[in-house]
Amino acid sequence: IKSILPENPKIAKEESLAPKPRIQIKAKSVVSEVKVRPQELKIGEYHLPSLELLDVPPPPEARKIKEDLEANARILEDTLEDFNITAKVTDIERGPVITRYELEPAPGVKLSRIVTLSDDIALSMKAQSVRILAPIPGKDRVGIEVPNSQGSFVYIREVFASNEFQKTKISLMLALGKDITGQPIIADLADMPHLLIAGTTGSGKTVCVNSLVLSLIFKNSPADLKFVMIDPKMVELMPFNGLPHLLCPVVTDSKKAYTALNWVVGEMEERYRLLAKAGARNIGVYNEKQEKLPFIVVIVDEFADLMSVARDQTEAAVQRLAQLSRAVGIHLILATQRPSVNVVTGVIKANLPARVSFKVASKVDSRTVLDMNGADKLLGKGDMLFLRPGESKLIRIQGTLVSDKEIRRVVDFIKSQAEPVYNEEILKGQQKSGISSDEKDEFYDEAVKIIMESNQASVSILQRRMRLGYTRAARIIDMMEAEGLVGPYEGSKPRRILIDREAWLKDTIDRIEDKPR
C-alpha cells in the first residue's frame, strides 16, 4: 500500500544517506577518576593505610578507538562469511585489555562451527589468541573476546578508590581487578571461604597474591586480622616480613610449613572449644559477646612444593581446614604454578570451590583448575578467569597491578605504628590443641604474675608479653575468671582484677624467698 502523499525526493535522499546505527559500543575510560577515601582511617590508635601510599594511574591516552572497534567488527563478520556463516555483531564491550564482540548468528547456524574457527578468527584479527563463549551465559548471542591492540594496566589504586571497595563494610574484601566492561570486581573471602589460584610463570599469579594481601590490610588492623604466610620460593612474600599482621615470620622452609599448617589445625580446634563455651555458632556471634577473635588467613604461594615434601600430611591438613575452619574465621589462599592432578587433587579441589586461573600451559590444566577449557587461551600478565562458589559462569578479569615500591611504602607505614608479636609455638610445633578446659596451662602461674604486675587483665597483654596465640591466652584468662582472679569481659572496658594485687604480689615474693636454695 503506497502513501497518498507525494514523495519528497530531497527528504528521501537525506534519509538514504543517514548512517544507521548497527553496533552498540560500550567502551569505558581505561582509568577511572580516583576518589578521595571517604571514611576515617583510624581504628583505635591504629591508622589504616591511605590511598596516597599507592601510585596514581596515568591519564588515559586520547585514542580513536570507536573506528577501530567498528572496523574489527566488520573484519569479524567477513571472516565468518568466508566460511559460510552468517552472523552480525550487535554489541561491543571494551575493557582495559580485552574487547568482547557479541555476535547474533543467523537462524540454523550451529554454534560448534563458530567455536572451531577460533584460530582463523585470531589470524584475521591479528590477535595472539581469541576466546569464544558459545553462547554467552544468559544471552542468545556468541561472545568473541579479542585482545586490544593497545592494552592498559589496571592499577590497584583504581579499584581501591571505587565505590564498590570504599563503601563495603565487609572485612575480608578482596580486590581482584576489572572485568571486560571496566567494572571493578571485588569478592568476599568469608563467602568463598577459601581460594585456589593457579597460573604459569609470568601469568600474574604472584602479583595477584600481593594485591589480595594489600586488599586485606587496607581494611583491617593487626588486632582484627592475622596472617600465616608460607613462601617456599623465598622471594615472593618476603616484602611482607615484619608486618604486624603476621603470626610468625614468613615461612620459607617446606618442612616447617607443614608444622605451621598443623598449628593452624590445632588453632581451629581450640577456637571451636571457645565458641562452644560461649554458645556462639560462628566467629561473628562470638566477637559480639567476647574479646574480639581475629581472622586468620593462611597464604601459600607455591603449594606444589609442600605437596612434594609431605604430600599426605599437607593434603590432610588442608582438607581439615577447608572443611571446618570457616565458622571460626580461618581462611586459605593457595597458589600454584603447577596445577596438575598430583597437586590440585580431587579432595583439595572439592573443598576449594572459589578458583582463579591465570594462563596455563594446556587445556588439561585448565580443566583441572576450572573444570572447563579457557585458561589456556588467556594472554598472561594479569589476564584471569574467576569462578565464584556455586556458579558455573566464568568471569574474565584483568588483575590489578601493584609494584614492589607500593608494597614497601604500605608495609613501612604499618610497621611504623606497631611491631609484630610472633607466636613462637607455630614453628616449634608446640600447639597443645588437646588441653581440656579443666587442665591448668603450664604458663598459668607466669600469666597471673604478668597480670598482677601490670594491673591489666587482657588477652592482648599475654599475647605480647608471653608470645602466645590468641586462643591459648584467652583460655588462660578464662581460667583466671573461673578461679575468681579477674572479672568477666565487659566490652571495651578492661577486666577488673578481683583480688588484692599488693597482697598477692607480697605473698608471691615471700613464697619465693622461703623456697630452699
From TrEMBL:
Pfam name, any one: FtsK_gamma
Organism: Candidatus Sherwoodlollariibacterium unditelluris
GO biological process terms, semicolon-separated: cell division
InterPro entries the record matches: AAA+_ATPase, FtsK/SpoIIIE/SftA, FtsK_alpha, FtsK_dom, Ftsk_gamma, P-loop_NTPase, WH-like_DNA-bd_sf, WH_DNA-bd_sf
Protein's recorded name: Cell division protein FtsK
Keyword tRNA-binding among UniProt keywords: no
Stretches assigned to the FtsK domain: 182-367
The family this protein is said to belong to: Belongs to the FtsK/SpoIIIE/SftA family.
List of residues binding ATP: G199, T200, T201, G202, S203, G204, K205, T206
Entry keyword annotation includes Cell division: yes
GO molecular function: ATP binding; DNA binding
Keywords, alphabetical: ATP-binding, Cell cycle, Cell division, DNA-binding, Nucleotide-binding
